[in-house]
Amino acid sequence: MHSEWREISVQTADAINRAKREGRRVIAIGTTALRSLESAADEAGVVRAESGPTDIFITPGYRFRVVDGLWTNFHLPRSTLFMLVSAFAGLEWMQAAYVHAIAQGYRFYSYGDASLLWRPR
Predict the structure, then answer these.
(1) What are the chain's domains?
(2) What's the pTM?
């Protein structure tokens, strides 16, 4: 998995931690935001303010600590980002979504059609 630069400010970390304490959902806009938040969280899900690269590789079986929803495009099948969304929403769910997307002519990759995914509870 490639490394990405991220920066989480004190204000952002505080807002996310407050939302989690209050039982509200945290929605990442894009896989970079999801990777950034998950890599900045401790085991209890508390997000730290920090900056620097993240090379977190999220695959099925990963235990999400922070993010409840993910707004992202349709990633190329058999890619590391497809593994990430499969870890997030479930492999069977994502496979079904991709069958639908292909049948309907959705576009894939960076300028493709988007989806809002929820982590199963």
Answers:
(1) 4-118 (3.40.1780.10)
(2) 0.90
